[in-house]
Amino acid sequence: MYFLGGMSARHEIFPWPELSAMKKMVVGEKAAAPSRYTFDDKQRLIGDESKTLVTCPAQTDRTAVLLILGQSNAANHGGQRYRSNYGARVVNAFDKRCFIAASPLLGSTDTRGEYWTLLGNKLIESGQNDSVILAPLAYSGSQVARWAPGGDLNPMLVDTVTQLHDSGYRVTSVLWVQGEADLVHGTTGEAYQERFLSMVDTLRQNGVEAPVYISIASKCLEPSNGGFKEHIPDNAIVRAQLALSRSGQGIREGVNSDALLDGDDRYDDCHFGGTAGEKVSQAWLNLLRGESLLESSPQSSLLGPPAKAGRVLSTRITPKEYSLFPAVQQDGTGK
């Protein structure tokens, strides 16, 4: 028998665990609060009651169709949310449907912010495009091996590309933001290149002829993120990413977020905060605008030969090479 009483340093008079268990037996477990979000078995966001369904815009030569791939810094783990400033001219394409773009985007993990919608706004505001189709497929903590043939994300990549094709869309750019997980897990540079090229082969075999932009991304600090205490810029993953970007196989250098962002731009020493979203989206805008001008030149060549899995390239980073993306250097703002 238990008696009412208090608590001393040696004895807890109230039997809290027993009382809690008895309450659960009598009252039952508390039902989970309803949520506007729906996830698949891999924790990818596949439904959001707040989304506005619209007719998918027809693709023209003034439409950007961006296939967005990678891990958390390509997904909905950002510190700032954005929404389309141009209504149905910036849309989130998912499952053969289109929604006015607004954070978080369907197709990626988590429910926080992202900067791709901001990029879409900037592409239209700058006059680069009349409409922007955002097609994200990004998984927190994913290593490159999961995207290569045999990995669990490779079939989902094929499915996403197929859905875009069935919707009448031709991908104009593939934006890859990934590498932090592979650095933490010790993936070698050679293995990273082989697996990335295998993923590119998957894209090519499924009708994606667009340039693949590989970001220079490896920085994720602190144990809470599974990362390190300090970042070493010249590492195996960055060397592999730079080598791939110079392969001339339709693979191009994307935004160098490792160099572009400082400590204040990452809200937890890993993930992009609001200032990071501004800087990175502007860098992507500068890159895509610059490439568009280059491709319109008579001397330009859009793509080299298809990437071949297994080809490993080598490079070393010099202090001069490890700098901000050139387009960002030109205006000097980093925003």
TrEMBL record:
GO molecular function term, any single one: hydrolase activity, acting on ester bonds
Entry annotated with the keyword Cytoplasm: no
UniProt xrefs under InterPro entries: Carb_Esterase_6, SASA, SGNH_hydro_sf
UniProt keywords, alphabetically: Hydrolase
Domain Sialate O-acetylesterase: 64-207
Ion transport as UniProt keyword: no
Protein name according to UniProt: Sialate O-acetylesterase domain-containing protein
Species per Swiss-Prot/TrEMBL record: Rhizobium aethiopicum
